[in-house]
Design the sequence.
């Protein structure tokens, strides 16, 4: 299970690092043109940038604390934070009637919950 948790955490970290970077460094108008990106026009540019920064921090929080052995309790906390973001994303895409993107959001949500459950419970970094 430890290997599965590391793989899922690595995949989530890569996804959120990419997604956060695009939100942080691309313009709102360019993001809106991407498939499923119309939601950015419903919120402020500051919110999009802040969300991007939080996603990058979450991606870092999934890997670095465990890798360095410094405050590894941050790994499941980062997973809970990213799960919360994905729950919100699923709600927004559902309201926008973008069913394909809802499935993607729910998949990432399930992956984040798996990491949080595993790292808080059976495969915790604390003894």
Sequence:
């Amino acid at each position: 299970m430890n290997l599965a948790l590391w793989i899922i955490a690595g995949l989530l970290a890569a996804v959120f690092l990419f997604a956060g970077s695009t939100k942080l460094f691309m313009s709102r108008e360019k993001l809106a043109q991407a498939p499923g990106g119309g939601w950015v026009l419903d919120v402020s540019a500051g919110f999009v940038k802040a969300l991007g920064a939080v996603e990058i921090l979450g991606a870092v929080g999934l890997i670095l604390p465990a890798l360095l052995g410094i405050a590894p309790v941050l790994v499941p906390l980062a997973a809970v934070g990213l799960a919360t973001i994905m729950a919100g994303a699923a709600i927004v895409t559902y309201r926008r009637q973008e069913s394909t993107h809802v499935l993607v959001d729910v998949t990432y949500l399930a992956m984040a919950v798996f990491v949080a459950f595993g790292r808080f419970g059976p495969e915790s970094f604390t003894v």
The mean pLDDT is 93.
